[in-house]
Design a protein that fits this description.
By secondary structure, this protein is an alpha/beta fold. The chain contains twelve helices and nine strands. It folds into two domains: 231 residues, Spore Coat Polysaccharide Biosynthesis Protein SpsA, Chain A, CATH 3.90.550; 97 residues. The strands form two sheets. The protein has a seven-stranded mixed sheet with strand order 3-2-1-4-7-5-8, sandwiched between helices. Helix 5 packs parallel to helix 8 and helix 7 runs parallel beside helix 8. The radius of gyration is 24 Å and the shape is elongated.
Amino acid sequence: MHQESSIKLSILIPVFNEENFLEKLLKDIKTYFDNTNTQVIFVDDGSEDNSFKIIKDFKDKKNYLFNLQIIKLEKNSGKGKALQVGLKECVGEYILLQDADLELDTKDAFEMFEMIQSNNEIKCIFGSRYLSGKLKRNNYFFNNLIGKLNSLIFNILFSQSLSDVHCGLKILHNSVLKKINLTVNDFGIEIDLASQIVRNKFFIYEFGVSYYFRTKDQGKKITWLDGIKSFYYLMKARFYDNSNLVNLSIIFSSVYMLALSFFLNLNIFFNITFFLIGCIIGINLNIIPSILILSMSTLGLYFVDNIIIKIISFLILFLIGLFLSKKLKIFFSKSKLNHLF
């Protein structure tokens, strides 16, 4: 990504067959962002309708102040690929990611930009369709359910509290994008982006936005199948796209928690639960804290025969071990040994 101090904001908009919405979108962009400090980049992702022509005609009129660029991909490669290509041309201090389908309001995008530039501590804001008291139209229960479920799973896997991972309206400081390397080409890009932001220890703020859901007849491209595919991207982002040390910690923690559940003669439900708890421990705490938790958890198991007392002592010592391990992680957070905790 280039550097150019004169541009304050880059707006990146992927487009695929959006001829019915582009004139209104361009009008809205001109209403809220018509200044010389704004760069607007449209990436036409192999559109088969008049999308490219509409943007090109608007550009040729030159009755606007912002810097307008059009990138045309000959073959449809997916939203993620379009964003990856467009980000290479973004030069703004802030980068606004905006969909072209008008499901989200450009006025909300402007409010998010005003908010992030007024507070230097904020580096990342995600729009949320579920937080706002603003106008909302959504008739598709299953799509809505999948979106909320994906956000819940993301929160569990990454220790976050986001309400809407998949919202297409996001604004980031360019220092955030310098730290990440996007690789997903389809709608899974939202999970790829969010997971890398969290991994690089940037805090994600949320801003409630209006939402006007469109139907398949109106050009809606994402389906419930994309929602199911996103489960794969969640698992990939959490359990594959890690350092070797983190993956080792996940394996170690999940195996010893499963072994402890067998040692306590628990049923299959608790076996699975203990295994998942181990995965979460491994995700959030590295090898040394995991060893501490294992040591504390097993300490009381060999000194009592009563199964009830054994389980109670296990739970107490497990919680103590978890508490101490988190304290250790905080204590060593700024040391050279941070990667071990």
